[in-house]
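Example for tutorial group B:
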């Protein structure tokens, strides 16, 4: 099989900048594609918060990006994904991207990312490196395929097929109509079957209509988003494009997420020797001010505090849980102020039993994965979810709601058969969550062998990116041949 030239156009890439699972994917999948022999490169904006890991080189030639009334000038920095030769290009434009935040709710977000989409294509032209396929990620780069299909259609770069991955359909990137001028797109695209939605430009919808193929991050989510209940207003487009839409479960970076080697842990361990996990639990209890006790079930949470994650259900269930069960909770997250305050308050009311760290802390996240006994993820919707896979790998059975990628990655525990990898509940209610925490708690106390079996089966799962990377290569080839047939 011939190697492919693949460009990742992405708003995040681990370990330089990450706001969520999208960053994990863009930092990991290219490594596997390169290992399979493909020429893969990544382009990302240079936010003020980007970590300059490894060697960086500024490209001598300035980058003229054709947006707005006049060309905007940017700088391009070149580095590689750590441990690989995969080139990563960062686009520097102080005025648009000097700020620290990746997304926030800046009024000029559409301009920032329209600029970035055009810049990504311009870098390829400047390098004289024309990708056969461009893999674009979520709404920020939704206008990129539109540019290729319209304004740029006669340029060589427009021969590239596009694969658009939906990481989270909830965030769609609404923009004022004036973005059409700024992005230099034809006004004729401002229609409901292209980029228009409710009188504005919807950047996610633009990507969905204009990409050659569409993927999302789990098969169950690929089904859910085609329905009115799960489509966030875009189910019609997704049904229309259903023949071009595929769900592929995200892998995880099994190199960096490995309890046997993770340098962030006070002790390492493996399925064959779990002794180190008890040391991690003790360290976690100490760090979050919990009573140090090896024999109490410790439930962990690591999450963005957003409605989607169902943490309001946990906040509602916790007083009752703490009233009747002998348990501890270690909670790490940030986001909606209401939830931040709710968890601060619960922790203050239950010293020694609930520890809450409000913020983003990668080291603590790893300690929770390792030190907790059960990992709680009551998501209302979950495109794929990574933390439940990390937790299984760290011997911490997940407790999840049956939605999206959680259905595809966690197998419910069946007591009579001694099978499964976690605890799964259906209804998005505090009651159902309460019952399931009770079930996990009883399993921990009363059926220790079963509990150990859950841990072992979870640790034996193969979540390596390699499996999904091969599926992506098939999608790239599918997209390339479709683009060739279309003659553009
Ligand atoms: P999403 O992308 O919807 O936020 P995922 O489970 O796919 O959810 O990915 C979340 C990623 O972000 C995981 O790597 C998780 O460890 C990390 N993460 C989330 N919240 C925090 C936090 N407060 N501190 C550290 N890491 C976090």
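The residue assignment follows.
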């Amino acid at each position: 099989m011939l190697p492919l030239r693949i460009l990742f156009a992405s708003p995040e890439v681990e370990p330089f900048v990450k706001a969520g699972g999208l960053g994990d994917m863009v930092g990991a999948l290219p490594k596997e594609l390169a290992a399979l022999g493909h020429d893969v490169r990544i382009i990302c904006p240079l936010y003020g918060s980007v970590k300059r890991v490894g060697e960086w080189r500024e490209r001598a030639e300035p980058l003229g990006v054709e947006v707005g009334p006049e060309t905007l000038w940017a700088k391009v920095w070149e580095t590689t994904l750590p441990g690989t030769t995969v080139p990563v290009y960062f686009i520097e434009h102080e005025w648009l991207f000097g700020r620290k935040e990746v997304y926030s709710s800046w009024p000029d977000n559409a301009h920032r990312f329209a600029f970035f989409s055009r810049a990504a294509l311009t870098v390829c032209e400047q390098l004289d490196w024309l990708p056969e396929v461009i893999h674009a990620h979520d709404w920020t780069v939704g206008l990129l395929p539109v540019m290729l299909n319209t304004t740029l259609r006669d340029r060589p770069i427009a021969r590239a097929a596009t694969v658009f991955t939906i990481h989270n359909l909830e965030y769609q990137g609404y923009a004022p109509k004036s973005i059409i001028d700024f992005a230099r797109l034809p006004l004729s695209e401002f229609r409901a079957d292209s980029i228009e939605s409710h009188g504005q430009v919807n950047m996610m919808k633009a990507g969905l209509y204009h990409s050659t193929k569409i993927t999302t991050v789990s098969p169950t989510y690929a089904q859910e988003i085609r329905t009115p209940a799960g489509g966030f207003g875009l189910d019609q487009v997704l049904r229309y494009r259903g023949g071009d839409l595929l769900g592929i479960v995200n892998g995880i970076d099994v190199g960096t997420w490995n309890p046997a080697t993770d340098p962030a842990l006070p002790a390492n361990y493996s399925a064959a020797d779990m002794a180190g996990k008890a040391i991690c639990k003790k360290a976690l209890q100490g760090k979050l001010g919990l009573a140090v006790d090896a024999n109490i079930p410790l439930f962990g949470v690591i999450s963005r505090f957003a409605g989607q994650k169902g943490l309001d259900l946990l906040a509602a269930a916790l007083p009752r849980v703490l009233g009747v069960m002998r348990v501890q909770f270690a909670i790490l997250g940030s986001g909606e102020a209401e939830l931040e305050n709710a968890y601060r308050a619960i922790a203050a009311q239950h010293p020694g039993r609930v520890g809450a760290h409000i913020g983003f802390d990668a080291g603590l996240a790893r300690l929770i994965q390792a030190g907790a006994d059960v990992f709680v993820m009551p998501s209302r919707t979950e495109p794929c979810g990574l933390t439940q896979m990390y937790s299984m790998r760290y011997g911490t059975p997940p407790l999840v709601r049956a939605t999206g990628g959680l259905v595809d990655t966690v197998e419910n525990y069946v007591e009579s058969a001694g099978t499964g990898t976690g605890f799964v509940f259906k209804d998005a209610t505090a009651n159902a969550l309460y019952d399931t925490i009770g079930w996990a708690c009883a399993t921990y106390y009363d059926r220790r062998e079963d509990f150990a079996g859950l841990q072992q089966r979870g640790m034996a799962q193969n979540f390596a990116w390699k499996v999904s990377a091969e599926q992506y290569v098939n999608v790239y080839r599918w997209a390339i041949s479709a683009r060739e047939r279309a003659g553009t």
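The two ends are 23 Å apart (CA to CA). Compare this with the pattern of hydrophobic and polar residues in the output above.
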